[in-house]
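Hi, here's the filled form for the chain we discussed.

Project: internal
Contact: R.S.
Residues: 441
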Amino acid sequence: MKTFPSGGVHPPENKLTAEVPIEVLPVPEKVVIPVSQHIGTPAVPVVEKGDKVRTGQLIARGNGFMSTNIHSSVSGTVSKIESVLDGTGFRQTAVFIDVAGDDWAETIDRDQKVNRECNLSKEEIVGKCYECGIVGLGGAAFPSHVKLTVPEGKKCEVLIINGVECEPYLTSDHRLMLEKGEEILAGVSVLMKALGVTKAMIGIENNKLNAISHLTEISRSFTGITVHPLKVKYPQGAEKQLIRALTGREVPSGHLPIDVGVVVQNIATAFAVYEAVQKNKPLFERVVTVTGKDVTRPGNYLVRTGTSLLKLIDAAGGRPESTGKVVNGGPMMGKAISNMDIPVVKGMSGIVVLPENESLRNAAMPCIRCSKCISVCPMNLEPYLLAALSEKSMFDKAAGERITDCMECGSCSFTCPANRPLLDYIRLGKSTAMKMAREKK
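And the returned structure, exactly as it came back:
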């Protein structure tokens, strides 16, 4: 079974919602839509208080190449434009809209018939992704038009589609593959055309056998697309590990996938690209898994961006009394949320409600020099050393030990028998080292 060669762990899967069909969440009474739902420069609002907007209408224009458009997820009236707290705890500008009905922009094709034929050129596809605000939906929210713009002197030879979803609990991609398989593969074909490649490989972990067989069957009617089962091992879905597992190519330290002739896109992103290019539908809704062992109605919900997280959690039965922590993302790489009244954004793939007995950290003890953190690191780093250097503010030395290569997967903290907060210190050291590097430039 294909996999990456070094490190990795096997946390409990807890895929509680794998068999729960996608449920459409009702349109809320109001939305709060941040103008920065992507890596890069925030978009600039193009609406004002009192403006009437329609579902799918542009409300904030991308500000430069490393930016992208933001669209209204509802129809109604702009009540105000002001700053709000986002899921990371920082304040950013957002458009507040009071909802009235659900009047979609006339340019959006709402016909459910799958359209496989794409008549647009490479440049037009990339332009459409920018216009419709498409970003990576695996969590990073990297603007898709940037990934599809291959730098001069580089060449993409293979497109990899990430259907791994290796984070425990999360199943939104799994359900999309089962329920929107033909649309996803049509989106993959569009991405192939944009990149000028004839080969696409879809990687799916072997704990999703129904998705593997479903997409394999559909792929027979598409040219150049193959489906590949992968060993169940975390973090199988990380870009560099997925590239190594499927192609055998290794992305060197400090380099990008395109440097080895590869572009990686998430399975949900392929679906969003299909809707943008073939249906002219901007990215204003997505599937979010809401789950947890004590959640009464865990499920996969199609939700409009800007919807309050409280509304989404209420749809799943509300927060249980046993709640100890609510995590944005999966339990391995996700981050705890302190404020529940934050908006759903493009990069939100899952919400995990952890009971108190599973969310409390055990007391940290001295390192016992067992080297388990080294053996599980998929990047062949020395997590104990990077954490120690960061704790002592020795950031230059940490940079020399390749701390910026860390993908923050959390395998080291997961396996540490001394309960050391390795990832916490490494995140601090990594962000500081990157800031220092930028200042030197």
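Let me know if anything looks off before we file it.
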